[in-house]
Structure formats: structure tokens, C-alpha cells
Amino acid sequence: AQSVSQHNHHVILSEAASLELGCNYSYGGTVNLFWYVQYPGQHLQLLLKYFSGDPLVKGIKGFEAEFIKSKFSFNLRKPSVQWSDTAEYFCAGGYSGNTPLVFGKGTRLSVIA
Amino acid sequence: NAGVTQTPKFQVLKTGQSMTLQCAQDMNHNSMYWYRQDPGMGLRLIYYSASEGTTDKGEVPNGYNVSRLNKREFSLRLESAAPSQTSVYFCAGFSNLMSYGYTFGSGTRLTVV
């Protein structure tokens, strides 16, 4: 069965530190990959998505992710985090079309001053 | 343009009671989904509807039923609520048009006592 794994359950960083959150998927064939963010008390919002083409994807709020097919990975990065990035981050994957997304268990990011 | 609207936002039920969670979208999504979110578990798919008139089970369908009343509405019913169904429920719609991706509702926080 398809699955998405996020390695870090809780990450604590100081402001201005660099961020990398790991995500691995177990899909065969063409896969669509997503990163979502959930701020406290809110619903999920799309950060970025990858379908095909350039494996380095840029999203909103300075986030980017790199699709590495050989490693089945889609790690999320940000060069310098801010306190406002404190949230939970979810990686998700699915096949093309309207097949349901499978979500990782999430990584909680706490950014401290 | 409201997007995906869920009602109610909060609900407390007694064990054995029934209720229906409502979801409506005005984004012309063909596909709609119900997920539940539990701490440390990420989002798990309960049911989905690939198109009007069709529904399919997801990862955790037991104890739930769904109705795709029309293209706009996709409701989730708990016939006999159990404490294990205490969770946050999210409805989502999928579009394969320009915005390609999922749009989530704001969630329903359900507590079963």
C-alpha cells in the first residue's frame, strides 16, 4: 500500500535557523507530492506541490522542496525560519487525478526567539 | 466565494447518539473527501466520492456513512457515536483544473463523551 513517512515528530528551532523536514514516500510510478501547513487551530493550507518537471519546487512563504526520485524523498526546506512558521507540517502523496491523498503523520515545528 | 464549508464547527455528543457533519463546496469540485485528524496520526481518509453518485471507503470507514447528495454536498454520518470517534474532521474537495489540488474546510471538532 502507498505510504508517506515523516521522520521528525517535533522540531524546535531558533529564529533565523535553517529548516529541513524529511518526507519519504512508497509509491511506484508517477506520483504527485504535496506539503501542507496547519497553523494552530486552523485548517490545512497548501505550501507547495510537485507533479513533474523541475524537481526543485518553490512554494509560498519562502518554502521550497526537492523531489529526489532515487531516494523516494520530498524534503521541505526554508533557509531562515520565523516565529510565525510555528505550525504542523504534513507531507502528502497521491497518483494523478482524483485518487485520495495519503498523508504523513505530521511534523510539529516550534520556532523560538 | 466560500470554498469548502463545514458545519458545525464544534459538537459534543453522548455515546450512542447520532449526528451528521455537513460539507458543501462552491468550487465545482468533482471529488470530495472526509478525513479525520488525531494527534500523532496525521490525516486518515474515512470516505471519498470521486464523482456525484459514487462513494468509496477509505482507510478508516468503520462507524461512518456518507452521502453525496449532489455535486456540492458531501455529508458524513455517525449512526452511533463512540468515544473513539472523538477527533477533528476535515472535508476536502479536489480540482484538476487550474488550481490543481485539495481545498480543505475549516474542520469540525467532535467530542464523544
Account of the 3D structure:
The complex is a heterodimer of chains A (113) and B (113). Chain A is built from no helices and twelve strands. Chain A is mainly β. In chain A, strands 2, 5, 6, 10, 11 and 12 form a six-stranded mixed β-sheet that branches. Chain A is globular and about 45 Å long. Chain B has 113 residues and is an all-beta fold. Chain B has strands at 4-7, 10-13, 19-25, 31-38, 42-49, 56-57, 64-68, 74-78, 87-95, 101-104, 108-112. In chain B, strands 2, 4, 5, 6, 9, 10 and 11 form a seven-stranded mixed β-sheet that branches. In chain B, strands 1-3-8-7 form a four-stranded antiparallel β-sheet, with no helix packed on it. Chains A and B meet through β6 and β11 of A and β4, β5 and β10 of B.
Summarize the model shown.
The complex is a heterodimer of chains A (113) and B (113). Chain A is mainly beta. Chain A is built from no helices and 12 strands.
Helices and strands, with pairings:
The complex is a heterodimer of chains A (113) and B (113).
Chain A: E1 4-5, E2 10-14, E3 19-21, E4 24-25, E5 32-38, E6 45-50, E7 56-58, E8 64-68, E9 73-78, E10 87-94, E11 102-103, E12 107-112
Parallel strand pairs in A: 2-12
Antiparallel strand pairs in A: 1-4, 3-9, 5-6, 5-10, 7-8, 8-9, 10-11, 10-12
Chain B: E1 4-7, E2 10-13, E3 19-25, E4 31-38, E5 42-49, E6 56-57, E7 64-68, E8 74-78, E9 87-95, E10 101-104, E11 108-112
Parallel strand pairs in B: 2-11
Antiparallel strand pairs in B: 1-3, 3-8, 4-5, 4-9, 5-6, 7-8, 9-10, 9-11
Termini separation of chain B (Å)?
36 Å
Integer average pLDDT of chain A? 92
Helix content of chain A: under 10%
Major pleated sheet of chain B: 7 strands, mixed
- Give me the oligomer status: heterodimer
Number of helices of chain A: 0
**Shape annotation of chain A:** globular
Tally of contiguous helical segments of chain B: 0
Key phrases:
heterodimer, A: 113 residues, mainly beta, six-stranded mixed sheet, four-stranded antiparallel sheet, 0% helix, B: 113 residues, globular
